Amino acid sequence: MDQNQVHIFDTTLRDGEQVPGCKLDTRQKIVIARQLEKLGVDVIEAGFPISSPGDFRSVEEIAKAVTDPIVCGLTRAVMKDIDVAADALKHAKRPRIHTGIGTSDSHIKFKFNTTREEVIRRAVDAVKHAKSYVEDVEFYAEDAGRTDNEFLARVIQAVVDAGATVLNIPDTTGYCLPEEYGAKIAFLRDNVNGIHKCILSTHCHNDLGLATANSIAGIQNGARQIECTINGVGERAGNTALEEVAMIMRQHPSLGLDTRINSKLLTETSLMVREAMGMPVQANKAIVGANAFAHSSGIHQDGVIKRRDTYEIIDPADVGVDESKIVLTARSGRAALAYRFKNLGYDLTKVQLDQKYAEFLNVADGKKEVQDEDLVEMMS
Ligand code: KIV
Ligand code: ZN
Questions:
Q1: Residues with Cβ within 5 Å of ion ligand 2?
Q2: E strands along the chain, which residues?
Q3: Minimal-distance CA residue to ligand 1 atom 1
Q4: What's the CA gap between 137 and 261, in Å, rounded?
């Protein structure tokens, strides 16, 4: 593996689709899976095959529909789950079984009513069983974010010895601080024998708005796979947003890390997922929100019109957006008004602009946004 490449594991169709109201049918999932393949994701988590016949079918059909990415199916550390996942993945060119178990004291005591030793035993049995079907077995230590590092290292050592190829360290409840999460990844990297043969993976939830920061802290400390979703959809406050981590690596070459993502397809993919899931994206969402490249205050507009990068760190074309938007509101200045008039074919002199600007402010005070039709009316 190229040590500078971070694998993108997309779980829009599994963790993302678990959200109430976001359910997709098999046909929609295939369309999205093909788009994810075009986008350049390395792994598609296609579903949780034992959860329902529909999910089984989706995983099976996605496994047939895509060729480039690894297709992954989720299981609990339960033999039957693994048998069913292996069956659903039988047509995949590059199958991966993703199995695991809760490792925090809270999960061990309240969810399983068992002991740490028993959790290690179940984890090892699950990995060995999955290995009897496929070479590529990813292990997740659910609630790793709240699992103490010494015990987590014991679990991870045991599954590495059992043959796991990828080690997923989920911050299931979105609890960790970036430094803490990064230190957890570093601790495992430094304290598990043979871990360099495996890929460490981040899987961060956004309950405190830290999913992206935590994923980046993870890769800065040695993780080489990020689990994420388009638009950050996912349980509760969501998962790490794919578009955010991909663009952070692209915009910060000093990290020395990159992905295979074709960033020009990010907006198109985001629109496809919001449409299929019926899940709107907040206007101020980084990268793919409607306002991500919109400028409405006079000072910012003047700067952007003079030179785009005074207020934009990403060229909108790089994420598939035609151009930055200069939005006219009562906070806009003359530069923006002149710019918008010019786009409509009206080249105003300074005197004309002064006159129209006074008129414009009256119109703008009465509405949220002044549209092209309003400007044409002002000129007629
Ligand atoms: O958040 C989580 O822990 C998960 C696992 C099932 C991988 O989604
Ligand atoms: Zn999750």
A1: 15
A2: 7-10, 43-47, 70-74, 95-102, 137-142, 166-171, 199-204, 225-228, 294-295, 325-326
A3: 172
A4: 23
CA neighbor of 65 nearest in space, from 98, 103, 27, 39: 27
Q: Is 170 in the pocket of ligand 1 (CB under 6 A)?
A: yes
Q: Which residues sit opposite 225 in a β-bridge? A: 7, 201
Which DSSP string corresponds to 92-120? -SSEEEEEEEE-SHHIIIIIS---HHHHH
Q: Which atom of ligand 1 is nearest to the CA of 74?
A: 6
Joined tokens for residue 113: 């009513």
> Would you list the domain boundaries of the chain?
7-277, 294-379
Whose C-alpha lies nearest to ligand 1, atom 6? 142
Please tell me the distance between residue 342's alpha carbon and the centre of ligand 1 in angstroms. 52
Averages of pLDDT over runs of 10 residues in the chain (380 residues) are 93 96 96 98 98 98 98 98 98 98 97 97 98 98 98 98 98 98 98 98 98 98 98 97 98 98 98 97 98 96 95 97 96 97 97 97 96 96
The predicted-structure confidence for 140-198, as pLDDT tens digits, reads as follows 999 999 999 999 999 999 999 999 999 999 999 999 999 999 999 999 999 999 999 99
Domain 7-277, classified CATH 3.20.20.70, yes or no? yes
The verdict on the CB of residue 172 being under 6 Å from ligand 1 is: yes
Q: Is the CB of 142 under 6 A from ligand 1?
A: yes
pLDDT tens-digit readout, 61-84:
999 999 999 999 999 999 999 999
* Ligand with the closest atom to the CA of 238: 2
Q: What is the distance between the alpha carbons of residues 356 and 334, in angstroms, rounded to a whole number?
A: 9
CB of 123 closer than 8 Å to CB of 139: yes
